[in-house]
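Q: I'm writing up a methods section and want to include an example of the input and output format. Could you take the sequence below and give the corresponding predicted structure tokens, formatted cleanly so I can copy it straight into the document?
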Amino acid sequence: AGQKFDPPIEFIVVPYEFSELFTAIENGEVDFVYSNPGVFSCIGVQFGATPLATVVKSLEVRNRIFDMDVAGGVIAVRYDNVQINTITDLKDKIIAAGGIVDLMGGQLQMNEMVQAGLS
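A: Here is the clean output for your methods example:
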């Protein structure tokens, strides 16, 4: 890649668990945060954070460019499971998620299930 700043920018990377991150921000121990959209939305609401940059603005697939102006997640089922074909088929099933604080790994899917009448 090469050097982009002269002099180079230096910073310390500190990994935090979700709850620890909020405490660190509240105590002024964090200057900037690199996080997923779900965590950022919580930080934005609680602390008034604003986005500085995003990782991807568009994506090229098979010579077509798609603007990444919406967020989405996936509900996946094993290829050999013929019993689950729609969201309502998830009723009374055990469901795994990345985390409820993860926008695209829990929150969006939970919303879709609630909209479909599941609880």
